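thread: overnight batch results

M.L. [08:02]
morning all. the overnight job finished for the chain we discussed friday. pasting input first so we're all looking at the same thing
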Amino acid sequence: MPGLCYRRSALRYIPLDRITVLEPPQLARGLKCVSLAEDVFADHFPGHPVMPGSLIQEALAQLGGVLLEATLRAQGKADVHALLTMVDRARFRKLVRPGDRLELEAHGVRASEDGGQVRAAATLDGQLAAEMELGFVFVKVSNPVVLERRREILSVWLNGSAEDP
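M.L. [08:03]
and the structure it wrote out:
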């Protein structure tokens, strides 16, 4: 989906398509609709396209980071960004291919000013495709351009648009 937030974003891959549930501090759910049009399939693998596990992990990390950031906002700590620092117990159980729809889920384990942790999973057709524990640290963001870019992406994830209709 071309848009202002994507053209200006320094993040090359935004594998999280939509956040469907955000209930801090416990739960976030989201979706990843895998398309053959994604650049990664040109090389991974020609004639046998498979979504890289690292991008499944990134989608779960983006969802988990949003959950933890929302948890801190609810505690009155605004303008923090969750940075992934740890991946533990990662298991990839099913191949994910173009045309698949991954259902993503992150459960908050802990969140404090120092950092946070989530348990995350991706399911495909009701079957577990990937699971992992993710750890984050929080950094204060004061750059207004970065803050606005982050708000735009979050709005697209939650509402489907960076602007009100």
